[in-house]
Structure formats: C-alpha cells, structure tokens
Write a structure and sequence with these properties.
By secondary structure, this protein is mostly beta strands. Helix content is 6%, strand content 72%.
C-alpha cells in the first residue's frame, strides 16, 4: 500500500464511519472536524496557528457547537516550546453557550528510546462563559513515533489528558486519544483520531468522537 493510499483509507474511515447508537443514557457519539492554517517565522522557530472547528452529534446528525481561534507558538529549545492563544466558541443550535477563552501552554519533549518520544503539556484555560468566569488546568502526556513505509513517513500517537476546573473545584474531565499525522503533500497533512472522553462534573457524560484535522502549513 502506498503512502497516499494510507491517507485515503484513514480519511475515508474517519469521514464515513457509521454512527453507532448510544448504549445507555449519557453516552454520545460525535464528529469533530477542524481546519488549521500554520504560518512559520524565524526559520521555523515560531508560528501562528489559525483554527476553526465544530462539534457534530452523529446520532442526530446535527451541529451544536463551533469554535475559532488564533495561537502563537515559539520554540525556545528543541525540547521546550510554549503557546499563547485565544478561542471563541458558541452554540449553533440556539443554545445559550458562549465562551471567550485565553490559553497558555508549556510543552516539554522527552526521548524514550527506540524512536519514541513523549510530550508533557500543561495548558491553562481562562474562560469567560455565559455562566461566568472559570479556569481550567489541563495536564496531558502524548507518546508518538515516526514510522516509515517505503519513502512515506507518518506519525502515530496516543495521549491521555486530565482537566481540573475551578467551576466545579474538581477533576472534571478525562480524555484518551489515539491518532496519526499523515502528510499528503509538502504543505498539507491530515490527522484522523479517535477520542474517549469522560465528563464527571455537572452531569456524567461519556463522549466517543471521531476527529479529523486538515492542516495547511507554510
């Protein structure tokens, strides 16, 4: 199988996976498409990332939330970089949800041997919601490894993340992701991934999501 065939097969699986019905109340199935535009500066030490996304319920086939944002990233060392950004989110189905969010990230990379590396990311979210202000602390570990088949290189990864939310004063969310970054051409790549997310603050909800991020980078 060629590299391009791998891209087509995985993207097709992400886009056209048949929606499964919830096994029990509180479990949802969603699709998270996202577009990202990356512009590099300073010999690829810094970049600006513009994103837009929406969340779609696969059971009802309806979009309920959208988000846009701009983030600036700078690589201080090969093993450490940081981000500052802004996101705006709102409901698209007539609901009251609205959010303006400032975020900061600090990412440390550690080699693990045998070609594997681990990224330790801390993110601080400062959120102005329609219900008031709150902050979230998010800790994530992601393990990845570059893989080459013939002359095609791609990067599978897996991550685990926990959220602490001042709105509830507790660990409010746990998220597991497995995915892969697939270059298409020189400036384009796609990233299909699967998500298992548990929200245990407010109402208990399990979300099973298929994500697909399209990335343009210059």
């Amino acid at each position: 199988m060629t590299g391009r065939s791998i891209v087509i097969a995985l993207c097709g699986a992400a886009l056209f996976a048949a929606p499964a019905r919830s096994a029990w109340a509180g479990e949802t199935h969603e699709f998270w498409p996202e577009l990202q535009f990356h512009k590099w500066f300073n010999e690829r030490e810094s970049r600006a990332i513009f994103m837009m996304s929406h969340n779609r319920d696969r059971d009802s086939n309806s979009t309920y939330q959208a988000e846009v944002g701009l983030t600036f990233e700078h690589h201080f060392k090969d093993w450490f970089w940081g981000r500052l950004g802004y996101r705006h989110g709102n409901s698209t189905d007539g609901g009251p949800f609205q959010e303006n969010r400032l975020l900061a990230e600090q990412i440390f990379r550690m080699p693990l041997g045998f070609g594997f590396s681990a990224d330790f990311r801390t993110r601080e979210d400062f959120r102005w919601l329609n219900t008031g202000f709150s902050a979230r602390l998010r800790e994530r570990i992601q393990v990845q490894r570059d893989v080459t088949i013939g002359d095609y290189l791609f990067t599978p990864y897996a991550s685990a993340e926990v959220y602490f939310d001042t709105q509830y004063n507790q660990m409010s969310r746990y998220r597991l992701i497995v995915g892969v970054t697939l270059p298409i051409y020189e400036h384009f790549s796609v990233e299909p991934y699967l998500v298992r997310q548990v929200d245990n603050a407010g109402s208990f909800t399990i979300t099973n999501a298929i994500g697909l991020t399209l990335i343009t980078s210059f």
